[in-house]
Design brief:
The structure is a homodimer. By secondary structure, the first copy, chain A, is of the alpha+beta class. Chain A contains 10 helices and 13 strands. In chain A, the strands form 2 sheets. In chain A, strands 8-10-7-11-9-12-13 form a 7-stranded mixed beta sheet. In chain A, strands 1-2-3-6-4-5 form a 6-stranded mixed beta sheet.
Chain lengths: 350, 350
């Protein structure tokens, strides 16, 4: 349900979201459906969680920026991140592959047959399977007349626990993110300019990690009231959380967790922009009821080797505002991104 | 898991099946996985059934042969047919859509925006939702740099019943099919030659019906020992059943249920060829232990308004043989089809 495509000719985040809404609206659901379309994944009455994530060559990945194996790994990781968004454990997944006759991919694999390309992608899929403890249950393999297609359907479960939804954030909750933001977008920014990103940035872009155990901890131990995974950038995803919860959000721009590599590569201002507008980090954004003690934050850090940072709070009203310095006035963020933050330049798009 | 693509440059049924096998082989599965990759769908220990079906413009559908709405309907119906293959009830499904900027599709929709095309396809998806009682649980929508992409992941359940597998057929079982065979392939054959197929043939091609209730009846009431849906043609699918069950199969070519429309359009010999080699009918092939009484066959016909026809039997050995006339010697069928039956000409392929 996360639109990863973004360039001058794309559907556009606003239009695309309205399109998804109009297509999925007026769902009758079914007697077994607890949460239908609109959140990161669907929830059935047996606690099973279901989501699907389509990745297309030239839109979501390019073979001059990552290997077929990395594309396979990354697509599975991104799909499993939708389970993390619901604080669900993975049960398994299915993969559809569309492979061009000639091996596909500009600048890569022209000499390989379709079988070699499929095997390379599936090598990455199997790495993800092992890394994240989610078995591959089945798949489909077909010819593509054009781009390589990788579509991943994930199955998870929350058992008898409540899923973490986008709705549920309460006025007064703190707004928190895991890890550092904008690193994948910084890697893309460098690649787009023909530069070689720092290895850590490239790793974030090519080998994201779904924050599954982290999400369950945030929901169960720290009582998260709402949350999602940051696949569309903090600004846009905070907007989704605000809209679904019927609240406003105030972000503190000076608190955003940036990586040293991103700041070194692009400077602080641009790194902040990409932290707000860049997707592909797959970190978590959650609303946590106050108070969260320093000890709890430190315990989280030790347990998961990952920072947990307060980046704002839930307020009355609607939409997302941001303060660029302590005490500065909170300025509204446009729907889907902060305009001059250059959302058009931060994605995989060629 | 059913390769619908077929032309001179495709992966080829033999190579493709071996490719799928090699990619999915050596699965570790998982503690929750009762039946992993290799059958029509996966079965988890809670009785849930999972499958995925990728359809790509120019390979599985063409917009000069069907509308976007029909392509949406047909892809969902085909995916749900994998649940019928397991004698499972549908619980719901997810849809990934890849839509080109310009509306996509040769000869169709050049003036439509991507939103209109997506809406038309989803109109067909919603028709299938209502027709087959399976709610749409969620989806993904993205830009495609080339063909329209429709990928459908289905979720079903057998509850506490046993799923119908490809393995399990016993020597001495009769081999039965539902409905008539080769009609969708006959429609494609006519379209390929620029002729207009009879309306009933076009309907079979554009609006297939997953035989869900029929499959449950065959499994529960008539005790089917093995079965699958005919998405790859009787010859090929009988081969899959034989291989999975470790048995041989003898088909009686003169008993194949052909439609009058197909025989009128192409003559009896070609109609038999397409009944054996043509996919896309989505009828069921099952092994039923003898005896099946005339009354049981008639009851099936009345209950489902659908014929049930004995087309052969399960024998010791391996592979598929066919007798073209009563008493004639049974001749071997090559893996994946009867060579001179012209499998290359019967698919949607452009």
């Amino acid at each position: 349900m996360t639109p990863d495509d973004a360039d001058g000719t794309r559907l556009g985040p606003g239009r695309e979201f309205r399109l998804i809404e109009s297509i999925l609206a007026d769902r009758e659901g079914g007697e077994r459906v607890r949460v239908g379309p609109g959140d990161d994944a669907a929830v059935l009455d047996d606690g099973s969680i279901h989501s699907i994530d389509l990745a297309v060559e030239g839109v979501h990945f390019r073979f001059d920026w990552m290997t077929p194996e990395e594309a396979g790994f990354r697509t599975v990781a991104g799909a499993l991140s939708d389970l993390a968004a619901m604080a669900a454990e993975p049960v398994g997944f299915l993969v559809s592959l569309g492979i061009p006759q000639k091996g596909g991919g500009e600048g890569k694999g022209e000499d390989d047959g379709p079988g070699d390309l499929a095997r390379s992608i599936m090598g990455g899929v199997r790495k993800a399977e092992k890394a994240f403890g989610a078995p591959l249950l089945g798949g489909d393999l077909t010819r593509s007349p054009g781009p390589v297609i990788i579509d991943v359907a994930v199955i998870g479960t929350v058992g008898s626990r409540a899923p973490l939804l986008r709705s549920g954030a309460k006025t007064g909750d703190g707004l928190w993110v895991t890890g550092t933001l904008g690193e994948a977008a910084t890697a893309i920014d460098c690649l787009r300019r023909g530069e070689t990103p720092a290895p850590a940035l490239l790793r974030r872009y090519r080998s994201p990690k779904p924050r599954i155990a982290e999400a369950i901890h945030l929901a169960e131990t720290l009582g998260a009231t709402a949350g999602l995974d940051l696949s569309d950038g903090l600004a846009g995803d905070a907007g989704h959380l605000a809209a679904a919860s019927g609240v406003g959000i105030e972000l503190e721009g000076h608190t955003l967790p940036l990586s040293r590599d991103a700041v070194e590569a692009l400077g602080r201002e641009r790194a902040v922009e990409l932290a707000l507008s860049g997707g592909d980090d797959y970190e978590l954004l959650v609303a946590l009821p106050d108070p969260i003690s320093t000890e709890e934050v430190e315990n989280f850090g030790k347990r998961f080797d990952l920072t947990l940072t307060r980046v704002g709070r839930v307020v009355e009203g609607s939409g997302v505002r941001i303060r660029t310095a302590p005490g500065a006035p909170a300025r509204p963020l446009a729907r889907g991104g902060w305009d001059h933050f250059g959302t058009e330049e931060t994605r995989t798009e060629s």
